Amino acid sequence: MLISDLSKSQSLLLMVAGAKGAVGSTLTVAAAAMRTQPEAVLPSLMTGQMFPYLGPAQETHVVGWDTTNKTLLTAIEAHGVLPETLWKPHQNELDLVEVRLAPPANSGLKEQVEQLRSDIQTFREHYPQTKAVLINLLPAGASGDLGQCHSLAQLYSEAYPAGFPDLGYTLAAIFSGVPIVNFTPNEVEIPVIVREAEQLGVPISGRDGKTGQTYLKVVLASALRARNLFVDGWYSLNILGNEDGKNLMDPERAAEKLSNKTRILDGILGYQIGERYGIPSHKVRIDYYPPRGDAKEAWDVIDFLGLFGLRMSIRLNLQGRDSVLAVPLVLDLARWMAVLQAAGRSGPIPELGFFFKQPIGDDPPLTFQDQVTKLGELELECDEKIAARTTAGTKQ
Ligand SMILES: NC(=O)c1ccc[n+]([C@@H]2O[C@H](COP(=O)([O-])OP(=O)(O)OC[C@H]3O[C@@H](n4cnc5c(N)ncnc54)[C@H](O)[C@@H]3O)[C@@H](O)[C@H]2O)c1
Q1: Confidence (pLDDT) at 361
Q2: Which ligand 1 atom is nearest residue 79's CA?
């Protein structure tokens, strides 16, 4: 995207893979509500007052894909994330949200990419003068080992694992010049894809949104490290009753999520928790518990040592709402990605580590302090680059 495009087009167009899921459908309601009741949504965003050269946050539209035929309104009601009083007033607008059927699961990767590129083109025609961003909200999947895949031809012909639709959406977005937010734990940022993104000027952010328990884990671990309090063990338990929770009962699908949640601590603290016991003493459990729906609950027990090695511990109980915590982050990330592309960035954006459990790219910031500092620096970098490009543009 050129800076001239940024100034011409005022609003964002979020193209959501998995638009009728818990997070996707809540996102459609938030986008609709923002236009008529900005005061109900905007204060929850971090970027609401940032990026003056981008259109106002409330000018955000959503389109997307899903595999289910049920209507968006039925999906919103079934997920039960939002009470009816919050979404009913927007039902006429929500009825108009364009959600296309996903490419058939049994089609080849190349065919999927072609269909999705054509859909992206159509969405753009329906929403001219908008800046598109792909939001990946597909279910957690088993991504397979694609690190050894060196060319697109190889990916198309042999390597593509069945049941990993994320690749089709990612490639279609890259070939269409659309920046990508990978909110899922699925590893799409393999070398061949990163290379294509860099060549075509497409930034990618990911992966695995850091919404509740892990966000607080980063904050607390960073605080304990800053005081040289030695973390001896960390036990984390989650119960959730939404589709994501059900899906994560499949050990193969949960593997990446659990590893993202577990890996994060050692990097922050600079040592392996439990080394002296010979086994890791950072444990993370996720349990599907239907009565809770989207209202997730998480417990943490943190054992740490102070002066003379004396033991102390912390108990943390988070009663969150999974999709309600996720949606403002998705909106913020979409705004970041439009701005980063206009500032000329492409490929992985490690500076957005604040938003993710498993930040991609080289040398992402790990502690809370570093993540906040990097975000500030990134904002400054974008402001300066965009100002320079605007000046260059007006001089021509
Ligand atoms: N909610 C959070 O706090 C949070 C945090 C971090 C990561 N995530 C991740 O975000 C993703 C979305 O979460 P969710 O709770 O909305 O999940 P969900 O299961 O409710 O939604 C996924 C949606 O994707 C659709 N889908 C499946 N295959 C598809 C395909 N090939 N093409 C298009 N659509 C398809 C499903 O029909 C469903 O509507 C998950 O990967 C989850 O792990 C969520």
Answers
A1: 95
A2: 20
